[in-house]
Amino acid sequence: MKYVSTRGSAPALDFEGATLAGLASDGGLYVPEAWPQFSADEIAAMRGLPYAELATRVMLPFVEGSLTEDELRGLCQHAYGKFAHAAVTPLKQFDEQHWLLELFHGPTLAFKDVALQLLGLLFETFLSRSSDHLTIVGATSGDTGSAAINAVAGRDRIDIFMLHPDGRISDVQRRQMTTVLAPNVHNIAIDGSFDDAQASVKRMFNDPEMTGRFHIGAVNSINWARLMAQVVYYFAAALQLGAPERKVAFAVPTGNFGDVFAGYVAAQMGLPVEQLIVATNVNDILHRALSEGDYSTGTVTPTAAPSMDIQVSSNFERLLFDCAGRDGEALAEQMRGFEESKAMRLTNAQREGAAHLFASARADADDTARAMRWAYEQCGEIIDPHTAIGLHAARQAGIAADVPVVTLATAHPAKFRDAVERATGVRPALPARVGDLFSREERYATLGGDYASIATYVAEHAIEAG
Known about the structure:
Elements: E1 2-5, E2 13-14, H1 15-21, E3 30-32, H2 40-44, H3 51-63, H4 69-80, E4 91-93, E5 98-102, H5 112-127, E6 134-139, H6 143-152, E7 158-165, H7 171-178, E8 185-191, H8 194-205, H9 208-211, E9 215-217, H10 224-240, E10 248-253, H11 258-268, E11 273-280, H12 285-292, E12 294-296, H13 316-323, H14 328-341, E13 343-345, H15 348-355, E14 358-362, H16 365-379, H17 385-395, E15 405-409, H18 417-424, E16 445-448, H19 451-461
Parallel strand pairs: 5-15, 6-7, 6-9, 7-8, 8-16, 10-11, 10-15, 11-14
Antiparallel strand pairs: 1-2, 1-3, 4-5, 12-13
């Protein structure tokens, strides 16, 4: 399997190369040169498999040439063996149509663990084949950072530098990062938004002074391997609800578009997806793009769902590329215009291509609180604000009654205790495995939001590539 850049001019890489590179050298994102296809019979044969075996079957076409089936199976068994639920991503029922896919049973209580536990093992496997040292640089709006740090803390030949917006994530989210004191972990709080942090990360990938000294890699969902691992749980949920004979819809709370793009990939592979409902909070660039064709940024508004407080959704570029004939040169020009003006109109081909599968909805603070109350009062389920935004979108989507609608539960409610308590009157407790979080020592640096300060800090603390 070869991987090509959405902007057309970077060299094609195999899976190992794309995983270690993260962002393409031309500023684009790697995607497979063609989508693997499963027949209905092949999908049906996946029913009832343990999660690690299902993951092996779904991901095997993507790793061809870089990992054998047995190597991939071993990595999946290792990654998913440490989850707190035997099903890894269990499915719960709200009512006769609506379902909840719990993705927070990993070590840091967020859906990012499903991918990042595997990604950490992939990095270690590929780095063991050389004498190289990997410097991971990432930005987080809350959950990616802790999941990535947990996945690579203490691993040989890897350093991780994780940027988060100072004061704009929950205390649980921050402490899950800053209390990991492994020597290869570097947390940085910046004076700015997540978009500012993400912009600095992207700039570093294209800064020859940094890339000439360090092998810089990515754990954000710009890294294809991370997104690939998220495809699996769409198969897991749909198979339990009758696929391939029955279509399933998914409502996905999303900021950076990676989680919902994984659903798009599943559909391209043959999974019968009725609709993917993109759920945003008031930072609604994705809702505006899909409903009006208007992909233009505004000011980030802090909300009770900080992982979605994003204006620039990096993975959206992958969808635009696929929906417009995979013309990398044209998309590169389109993205250059967006990066300069922070505004872009989707082409007719892009809008029409997206409309075949995607719908969208926006939830404000009242919508979010109402969804949390409905889940608790009517169904006995306590959900976090991000999941509530997905549930709000799912319940107002107008999907036919015979199609099950699965809302992705992206975080444990205890990560957002204050918001949950305000809405429901219940203060969720942290699971026992992280119950001492607030007694642990914290360690992190505080920097300005300018690129020079961030790059200087990384250069002073990273190990140069061998």
